[in-house]
Amino acid sequence: MKNQNNKKQGLVWSGYLNKALAQTPNQFKSDAKYLNYIQKVDSQRLTRAILKLFPNTQVSVKLSSLTANGYIGKTPGYTKVVNLGKLPSSSGTIATSLWDTSAQPVNSRVEKFERQLSEAGYSSSIRSKMTSGRLGIYIADDVNLSTRRGLPTKTDGEGRTTVYTIVYGIPTRD
């Protein structure tokens, strides 16, 4: 087995590996509980890194739940909802760096996503001023969805999912 830069090779004992688990936003009752989950669970490393790109924007579990399936349609309680995960880039294509960089290190993925945000007009100075709105974010990066049973069993191997939803919206009421 070799890593991305082909410098290391070897075997990994299966006992060192853990299945990555994710919970959907609709499993949380408050913004604080959802944010606590994002801050503490290993499967949310990419989410934590992306949140650092929006230092002054609060996360909304409601907006995250409304848009978790990737469809940005009606979002009751929010106006001017922008799908930050699918912005046009300078070349006119849709920015999909999170899909294109799957399985790469988190830092390089976030750097590419940040460049695409800047190309679309969301520079770091603009993002730091995004204080009146809320961020809806749900990232399940090739993980198993957790079940009521707790940890997945051997038969849950086919339950992996990949979802990248990052939206910004202005609340009409809080």
Explain what you see.
With 174 residues, the chain is α/β, with parallel strands linked by helices. Helix content is 27%, strand content 20%. The chain contains six helices and five strands. Strands 1, 2, 3, 4 and 5 form a five-stranded mixed β-sheet that branches. α2 packs parallel to α5. The longest helix has 14 residues. It is globular. The termini are far apart. The mean pLDDT is 80.
Keywords:
174 residues; alpha/beta; 5-stranded mixed beta sheet; 5 strands; 27% helix; 20% strand
Please outline the helices and strands.
Layout: E1 21-22, H1 31-40, H2 45-51, E2 58-59, H3 61-67, E3 78-83, H4 97-100, H5 106-119, H6 124-128, E4 134-145, E5 160-171
Parallel strand pairs: 1-4, 2-4
Antiparallel strand pairs: 3-5, 4-5
